[in-house]
Amino acid sequence: MNPTELKTALKAGRRVYGTLIVSPSPRWPDVVAGIGLDFVFIDTEHIALDRAQVSWMCQTYRARGLPPIVRIPSPDPYQACMVLDGGAAGIIVPYIETPDQAHAIRGAVKLRPIKGERLEAALRNPAALEPELQAYVDRNNRDSLFVINVESTPALARLDELLAVPGLDAVLIGPHDLSCSLGIPERYDDPRFEEALLGIIRRARAAGVAAGIHWWGATERFGPWIEAGLNLIICSTDLTAMRQKLEGDIRGLRKRNGDAPAGGAAAENI
Q1: Are 50 and 71 in contact (CB under 8 A)?
Q2: Which of 110, 121, 193, 229 could form an SS bridge with 128, CB 3.0 to 4.6 Å?
Q3: What are 151-173's pLDDT values in tens digits?
Q4: Dihedral sign for Cα atoms in the order 21, 176, 164, 107
């Protein structure tokens, strides 16, 4: 896909599939391009990637037909502009809880490169921009995806307000943080977690906004979420997939050779 096709698919409610890419290896894009993904998710909130690495990854994956959506470290409009300048096809903003936070990022994603007082005026009143300038920003930002992480009980309480923010393309559920905010950390089978998750999906889709999740567990869990309308699917990570495959191979080799199993670390929650 290219960014236009990705945005069109999400708006139409079609399902798109991606994964979280951790490795900045120059060999990785060629490998990832053959998997059958629609996009890649690059996380700079939890992963130590510098600006040059992120830009290189964005430009390379974009050239391979995999639009890169980048999660910035915090709800900072300047960080959003920075990664868009580096080649990102869209922005995921972590831990959004208020419409004001979402509006500030909307300005960075949808009205770039306007900043300062002129941007504040445009966010308050869409008619504040001259027709030529409005046409310019519309043309230059029409394919930039604006996605917010919904991952807390305050965000749930204000979800309808968040979904009403103009230009919002998708919400992305953060299951780990959501479970913690609900007071049931990592209890992903708890009915309270499932109820909250399904509620986010259904309310987002009813508002005409795409609904997504990053999930690293059993893929069977996607079933009821997809039935509820989930259409932005981020499955696992390159790191987790490598760990799971290699761990199984090594355990099998040890067992066949009569060697004692070694201890292993638990998979990370990203």
Answers
A1: no
A2: 121
A3: 999 999 999 999 999 999 999 99
A4: negative
Pairing relation of β-strands 232-237 and 39-43? unpaired
Can you give the pLDDT at residue 138?
A: 95
Instruction: Quickly list DSSP for 21-50.
Output: E----TTHHHHHHTS--SEEEEESSSS---
Question: What is the rounded distance in angstroms from the CA atom of residue 90 to the CA atom of residue 143?
Answer: 8
First vs last Cα of the chain: how many Å apart?
A: 25
Question: Given this model, what pLDDT does residue 268 score?
Answer: 53
Distance of CA 168 to the CA centre of its chain: 13
* Residue 107 clears pLDDT 60, i.e. is over it: yes
In this prediction, residue 269 carries a pLDDT of 58
Whether the CB-CB separation of 7 and 143 falls below 8 Å is answered with yes
Describe the crossing of helices 116-124 and 99-110 by its angle, rounded to 10 degrees: 120
Calculate the CA 157 to chain-centre distance. 21
